[in-house]
Structures are given as C-alpha cells and as structure tokens.
Design brief:
Strand content: 15-25%
CATH topology of the largest domain: Rossmann fold
Radius of gyration: 22 Å
Mean pLDDT: 91
Structural class: alpha/beta
CATH class of the largest domain: Alpha Beta
Oligomer: single chain
Largest sheet: 7 strands, mixed
Distance between the termini: 35 Å
Number of strands: 14
CATH architecture of the largest domain: 3-Layer(aba) Sandwich
Order of helices and strands: HHEHEHEHEHEHEHEHEHEEHHHEEEE
Number of helices: 13
Helix content: 40-55%
C-alpha cells in the first residue's frame, strides 16, 4: 500500500481537512555564526511554503557544535512538531536521532551527506531522510554522464591536488576502468596559475578531446580559455565546485558541470518563482529545497492521517510533487533519483540540459 502514488493516496487524504491536521514543523537551522546566511535560506523557503498551507513553523537555532544533537532533539520533541527539517550540520544529528525516533518525529536533512549517518539510521530504525545527495552521488552522476555522452571519445582526467579534487577524480577513474573505459591521460596539475598552456599541450599530445577537471571554477575557466587559444578541440566538464562566481577569468560558452537544482521546477515552478520574486527572495542555496521539504511533509501528513499509517512510513515509496520537481524516498531513505543534473554554461548562467537532449 505504501507504494501507491501520491495522486491515488490524496483521494483518501481529502477525508481529513488540512486545518484539522494541525501540522507543526520544526525548522532546524543556524540563526547566527558562520552559517547564518544558509539558515536564512532554509527559513525563507520554509516560510514561503508554510504561508500558503497554513502550517505552523517552530524555528530552532542550530549551533553546529559537538554534542548539540540530544539538546536539539529534546527541543524538537517538546515543541509538538510532527517532523523536523533543516539539519545543515552532522553535529545536530549525532545523539539526537534516537530521541527523535522515540518521539516518532521524522528528520529530513537538506545538507548532511555523510553516508555513515544513514547507515546507522537504517540499522537502528531511526526516521531519518536525506533531501539532497549523499557523498557518492556527485561521482556517480559524473561517471554516468561520461559513459553515456563521451563514448568513443578520448577522455582525460585531471585534478588540482586538493583532497576534494583528488578523491572525486579518483572515484570517477575507478568507476570508468571497472566498466572498461581507460582514460588516455590522468594527471595532477598545479592550480592557481595564470595560464595552463603546458597542461593543454600535454592533453593535446595525448589526443584528449574530452576533459574532466576536478578543480575550482577559475582553473577550469583558464583551461578552457587556453584550449581555445591553442585551437585544441576539447570539451570540459567539472563538478559542482565550478558553480561559483564567474571571476576573475570568465568561463567559455559550452563548459559543462554537474550541480544541484536551485530554481523551482515542475508544474508549480511559475507560481513559486513569482512568489519568490514578490518576497525578494533569491532562488539559491537551500531556499527551494526547504520549500520542497515543507510541502512534501504536508502531503505526507495528509496521507498518514487518511491511511492511519505512521508519517515516516508514508514518506517511503510515495511520489511527491514539489518545487524541486517529483521526489521519492527509497527504502534506504535516500532520494530515489540522483539529484545532480548536467548543466551547460550558456549566456552567463549554467542551464540544465533536458533529459531528452542529454
């Protein structure tokens, strides 16, 4: 029963008026400190969604300090909240998930990617869900794109020597070689240089036509610029790290990246975009994910009330229509579909490439 689609289940949820369901949600996000701006994004998105659904929000400060998890969980449990969203820091969940589980309060993180956290939650039966990627999602999506779109091309993998760049690139290399695709060139380059002409010439000599760069935006911009100057026909692909301010060197048209959606999607995109504009709220960071979390919980509570099933159980296997587009949590409490998207730099912005054209 729990795998019925949202459309069918909502026929039953209509038996319980939204006003009678008394949905109260806890919004757990920083109100001060280094992450205050991110916390503001969470609150803005949640408030926008709650305002149109008559949902009561209880804002709880997330200090992101070691040992804060149990204290936060007690605050949530005492607040009367049916569920909690936010949790931008893993410290807020360590020690707190058992308390929330005992109170039967699902927790949805918008940020924490640590796979071990989810493994512990599943092992112990804690109602913990992730509305965002886990730590392997980026490498998995990049590997998928390379195997799908660059088949038959001479592929190179380069990275900037940082922990992030090296680990991401190595994960891709291993995955490609397991599938029988061996890059023609793999190397570490020196980042932060005024030009990368020597690297581009080495790539050209190796015959590379497609280059994944585990690097930041400016280094990728310099590579693409220098490749164009050398008349070296190369297509560049980067990770989410290159979605940053377009300076000091501007990206070349056509540079590819994977990233997470920040702008509204789906049938309600126009209305949500209009509401964001009216509130002068930029569609960035956690604004749209927080909006999506609130609306899917509102729908899930309606289903839970109508069907007489626990809220956490209702979240699994149900299709929800949200500001991020369709969302479903699998049995592993992770998103059923990898949230990373392929994007291309066009006209001063990264534009998602529609699935049909990929």
């Amino acid at each position: 029963m729990k795998r019925l689609t949202l459309t069918l289940l909502l026929l039953g949820s209509c038996l319980v008026p939204a006003s009678a369901q008394q949905l109260t949600l806890a919004i757990v996000a920083p109100k001060s400190g280094n992450f205050e701006s991110l916390g503001n994004q969470v609150r803005q998105g949640a408030q926008l969604a709650a305002g149109s659904l008559s949902i009561s929000l209880i804002e709880i400060h997330e200090p992101c300090t070691e040992g804060s998890g149990p204290v936060l969980a007690e605050q949530i449990a005492k607040s009367g909240a049916k569920a909690a969203i936010g949790f931008l820091c893993s410290e807020s969940l360590v020690g707190g998930l058992p308390v929330l589980a005992e109170a039967k309060i699902p927790a949805i993180t918008l940020s924490v990617r640590w796979k071990g956290m989810m493994e512990d939650a599943l092992k112990n039966g804690w109602p913990f869900f992730r509305l965002g990627p886990h730590s392997d999602s980026e490498a998995q999506k990049l590997t998928e794109i390379i195997l799908r779109d660059w088949k038959g091309e001479a592929i190179a993998l380069v990275e900037d020597g940082t922990i992030r760049g090296r680990e991401l690139t190595e994960a891709i290399r291993i995955a490609l070689e397991e599938r029988g695709l061996k890059p023609v060139f793999v190397d570490t380059f020196r980042p932060g240089q005024e030009n990368q002409l020597a690297l581009i010439r080495r790539l050209r000599n190796a015959g590379a036509t497609r280059v994944f760069a585990g690097a930041d935006r400016n280094d990728v911009a310099i590579m693409a610029r220098d490749a164009a100057a050398e008349v070296a026909p190369m297509k560049f692909l980067g990770g989410d790290a290159i979605r940053a301010p377009n300076e000091p060197v501007a990206l070349q048209e056509g540079v590819l990246a994977v990233g997470l959606a920040e702008k509204p999607a789906g049938p309600s995109a126009a209305a949500i975009t209009e509401a964001l504009a009216a509130g002068r709220i930029p569609a960035e960071g956690y604004v749209v994910p927080a909006h999506a979390a609130v609306t899917l919980l509102a729908d899930a509570l309606g289903i839970s009330s109508a069907m007489g099933t626990p809220l956490a159980e209702t979240l699994v296997g149900t299709d929800f229509k949200t500001a991020l587009g369709p969302i479903r949590f699998g049995d592993d409490h992770e998103l059923a579909v990898n949230p990373y998207q392929l994007m291309e730099w066009r006209g001063g912005d990264f534009v998602p490439i529609a699935a049909a054209s990929q």
